Amino acid sequence: MKRIAEEAFRMPVSTILPLPASGSNRRYYRLTFEDSTTILAAENNEVRENRAFIEFSKHFGQHGLPVPEILYEHPDGNLYFQSDLGNTTLYDFISANRDQEQQILQYYQAAADALLQFQFCPPPDYRLCFPRDSFDRTSMMWDLNYFKYYFLKLANIPFDEQKLEHDYIAFCDALNGVPSGFFMYRDFQSRNIMVNGSELAFVDYQGGRRGALQYDLASLLYDAKANLSDDFRSKIFNYYCEKLQAQHPELVDGFKEYFYHFVLLRIMQAFGAYGYRGYYEKKSHFLQSVPLAAANLQKLLHIIPFGHDFPELWQVWNHIAERFDNAGMEIQSDILQVDISSFSYKKGYPSGDPEHGGGFVFDCRALPNPGREERFKMVTGKDSTVIEWLSEKEEVSYYLDACADLVCLSVDNYLERKFNRLTVAFGCTGGQHRSVYCAEQLAKDLQNRYGHDIQINLSHREQI
Q: Which of 14, 29, 233, 311 could be stapled to 41 by a disulfide with Cβ–Cβ 3.0 to 4.6 Å?
C-alpha cells in the first residue's frame, strides 16, 4: 500500500494508521504524506462493491453532493484511495454534545436536505448496484429472513413459522405498490454522516439501489444508537415532508401513509444485523443496540395499527419489546473498565488487581527497536517520529492486529457477561518506545470499536 501510494501521488508516505473495523469486511487506513496531507485507503476483496462505491462517488460528486473524492483506483480493483473527511461522525457529535440541541437539529435538517438531493438527483448507473439493483420484493424478503434466522431464532423469540411467512407475504404485498424509482442510500444513518464544522459529508452508500423514499428517512430517525427523542423525530419528519411538499407535492400523502411500514422494515433489518454480528459472530458489543431498538419498537406499537394486518409479526414485535424492555438500563450502567498500560521488563511485571487477576501481558521485545537509534533516545512511543517509524514496520502492524483480535475476544465476552474489568499490559526492554506505542494504538482501536460501551484507563508506568 505504501509503495502504491507513493508511486501514485509521487510523495513519501510518513505514516499508515489502520482505522477501526466496522461491521463490513472493508478495511480503511489513513495515510499521512511528508507534507502532512492525509488521504484514506480502502481495501476490500469484493470488487463489485468497490466499483459501486467508486462510480457512485464520482456520480454524486459531479452533481454537487458532498461525498469523498476518488483519488486513485488500483487496477486489481481491491484497493482505492479517497479524500479524507476526518474522524467525526454525526453519531460522535451527538454522543459528545447532547446538550447542543439546536446544533444537532441543524445537522439533521441539513442531512434531510442532502437526502432529498440523493433521492432526486439524476440516478447513477443502477447496473453497478451491489448486491441488487432495486429494493424490491426480493430485497424485502431477504431482510425479513435475515431478521428471522439471525435474530428471532438466535434470540429464542417464539413464533409460528407458517403464520410468520404469511405475514411476510402480506407485508411485501402492502409495499409492492409504493413508488420506488428513487435512489435509496440503504444505510443513511448517523455513523455514515461526517461532520466538519458546519458542513456534513456522506459515506458508505455502496449498497445503494433504486427504491422507495421512506426507507432512508426511517434509517436516519430510527437509528437505535443515536437514541433520538420522539419530539425530535417529529421535527425532522415534518421538516422533510415540508421540503418534499415544496418539490414534489404529489408524493407527500403516499410518503406519510407508508412511512411506518418502512420504519418497521428497517428496524427488523437492524435486528437481523445485530443478531448476525452479536449472536452468530460472537461480537457481543453489537448486542448493545438491541435494547435501544426494542425501545423504539415499544413506542411504535402504541401508535401503529398493524395488529390486524400482520398478527404474527405483531406478536413477535411485542415479544421483543417485552424481552428487552429493561435490559437497556442494565447495559448502560455496567461499563467495562479496560486498563491498558506499558512497562519495562527490567523493572518487573506490572502489579495486577488482586480481586481480578485476569487479562493480557504482551511482550513487545521481538519487534524492531527504535531505541537502538540515537535520534530516538530522548523521545517515547507517543512522539510522532517514533510513531511514524514503528507504523512503517509490517511486523508491528501484524503484531498489533493479533493483539487486538485476542483482546476483542475478551471484550466481547466480558460485555456479554457483564464483567467490569479487563487489564492489558505491553512490555518492552525499557518501557519507552515499543510498549508505549502499542498501548496507545490499542487504546485508540478499542475506543473506536466500542465507543461508550467501555471505559479505557491508559497509563505508562515508566513515563510517570
A: 29
